[in-house]
Write a structure and sequence with these properties.
It is a single chain. By secondary structure, this protein is of the alpha+beta class. It has three domains: 4-48 and 160-235 and 341-385, FAD/NAD(P)-binding domain, CATH 3.50.50; 71-155 and 237-337, D-Amino Acid Oxidase, Chain A, domain 2 (2-Layer Sandwich); 405-504, Alpha-glycerophosphate oxidase, cap domain (Helicase, Ruva Protein, domain 3). The chain has helices at 20-31, 68-84, 105-117, 158-171, 220-226, 296-307, 367-378, 405-416, 422-432, 436-440, 459-468, 474-481, 490-504, and strands spanning 4-16, 36-39, 55-56, 89-98, 128-131, 147-156, 175-177, 180-188, 191-198, 204-214, 236-247, 255-259, 265-271, 275-279, 283-284, 321-330, 344-349, 356-361, 452-454, 457-458.
């Protein structure tokens, strides 16, 4: 189909990529008054941004590589994010068992001291030593682990973080187009002319923008070479990280961080009330970017990693779900994947007065600061994004929980919708925050919320996700906007898929 001319509007900014960096920049820029178009070839958070370990953390192990600036920035951002999205983020305590074969005690103590004090006025509890013989956190561990440490970090529903940034951007005027691919773009008389393709309906359009942000993640270098036909001296190093989910193997809200003989670390984290999440791996990826899957070798590695510590063995046959993604790390020529920097590099090309900003690397915890830095770099050549920085204290959609925090907000929600069971009310508030009221709508009973597909997922909720969160396919609802697919039977998942198809075609 021939391209349709949609060039009457000249956007201030065209953002390519609907992961956490792209949506974070879209949110910040639109809040400064810039007109923004974001295109994403698939669903929001389809790739890297939904395949993390779900942690908001400073990066304790990055201290070994002297990444002090990154750790400090991440610690500051951790506390900020916990305050602006308390419905999808919450603090966790991490238990680090120790044995003589691992990093020496003095190194761990020093690392934890720095972790506690690198950033000012941190709100989470400080680290301390643990006697695993007497502390409840020691119960699931093998008897040989007698000493340990505990420190604080945070948890995030990663794909929801992306969606909430996109929602806030849209609320502030941004045009968010999912399943829309950038075909090509070129500079014409100081303006970018881009051809974009609707991947669902077919057909292409021409759009114009004063500046472009390349936030394509694993595709950042390929987009420069293929869609933009531009030379590039920087590159990303793709590293596959995989995770497994198994039935719950320990009680309590704490997480565990385990040190392996290869010096890598693996986390074991309470997940979805009934499960344990174990990850991650670091496997260099030399093939084309895209959807990736865990390998049998990675499953074996993760099982062996936790089996060195837990009394109860985890077997590959215990795995109920797994996921994997590619981390696009800035290639700093490190010898191994674990040592590659998690910092980011912003590359600005202002040829012909039509700026192009490409983002290499980054981590989910620092996405908001990355967005700030991106717009600071663009502002001298693109004044439309030069407004004041505003995102540090502005709640993401649903995050304005009111007095008393999450528990008080949950109680008020239950008072307003007493027909919801406690588990369902909790899930809705943890997923949508104050937008849970919009999910319930005018319903006065559970039957008023439409068909119940199982595990409390109703037609009302699916309709809300379609209308407000760009959900267009079963996986958008079951595995990205929520994790309800983990709890459903195959028949229930298929019914959700059929309903979505009826609604969106």
């Amino acid at each position: 189909m021939a391209a349709a001319d949609d060039s009457s509007t000249v956007y201030d900014l065209l953002i390519v990529g609907g992961g956490v960096n792209g949506t974070g920049i879209a949110r910040d820029a639109s809040g400064r008054g810039a007109s923004v178009l974001l295109v994403e070839q698939d669903d929001l958070a389809s790739y890297t941004s939904s395949a993390s370990t779900k942690l908001i953390h400073g990066g304790l192990r990055y201290l070994e590589y002297y990444e002090f600036r990154l750790v400090r920035e991440a610690l500051i951002e951790r506390d900020r994010l916990l305050s602006i999205a308390p419905h999808i983020m919450w603090p966790l305590r991490f238990v680090l068992p120790h044995s003589p074969e691992q990093r020496p005690v003095w190194m761990i103590r020093l690392g934890l001291f720095l972790y506690d004090h690198l950033a000012p006025k941190m709100k989470l509890p400080k680290s301390r030593a643990l006697n695993l013989n007497t502390h409840s956190a020691g119960q699931p561990l093998q008897d040989q682990y007698k000493k340990g440490f505990v420190y604080s970090d945070g948890w995030v529903q990663d794909s929801r973080l992306v969606v909430l940034n996109a929602m806030d951007a849209a609320n502030r005027g941004a045009d968010i187009r999912t399943r829309t691919r950038l075909v090509s773009a070129r500079r014409v008389n100081g303006i970018w002319e881009a051809e974009i393709e609707d991947m669902r309906k077919g057909g292409t359009k021409t759009v114009r923008a004063k500046g472009v942000v390349n936030a394509a993640g694993p595709w950042v270098a390929r987009l420069l070479a293929n869609q933009l036909d531009l030379p590039n001296s920087k590159s990303v190093r793709l590293v596959k990280g995989s995770h497994i989910v198994v039935p719950q193997i320990f009680d309590g809200p704490q997480c565990y961080i385990f040190q392996n003989p290869d010096k890598r670390i693996v986390f074991a984290i309470p997940y979805e009330q009934r499960f344990t999440l174990i990850g991650t791996t670091d496997v260099t990826w030399n093939e084309e970017p895209g959807l990736v899957q865990i390998s049998p070798e990675e499953v074996k590695y993760l099982c062996e990693s936790v089996n060195r510590y837990f009394k109860e063995d985890v077997k590959p046959s215990d795995v109920v779900w797994s996921y994997a993604g590619l981390r696009p790390l800035y290639d700093d020529a490190a010898a191994n994947a674990s040592a590659v920097t998690r910092d980011y590099v912003l590359d600005l090309d202002n040829t012909d007065g039509a700026p192009l900003l490409s983002i290499f690397g980054g981590k989910i915890t620092t996405f908001r600061k990355l967005a700030e830095h991106a717009l600071e770099k663009l502002a001298p050549v693109l004044p439309a994004v030069g407004g004041y920085s505003w995102t540090a204290d502005a709640a993401l959609p649903g995050g304005d929980l009111g007095t008393g925090g999450f528990e008080a907000a949950l109680n008020r929600f239950r008072d307003a919708a007493p027909f919801l069971s406690l588990p369902l009310a909790w899930r809705l508030m943890r997923t949508y925050g104050m937008r849970a009221y919009d999910v319930v709508g005018t319903a006065k009973s559970l039957s008023d919320m439409g068909e119940d597909f199982g595990q409390g997922m109703t037609a009302n909720e699916v309709d809300y996700l379609i209308a407000n969160e760009w959900a267009r396919a079963p996986e958008d609802v079951l595995w990205r906007r929520t994790k309800i697919g983990l709890h459903m039977t195959e028949e229930q998942r298929q019914r959700v898929g059929a309903y979505i198809k009826e609604k969106v075609g």
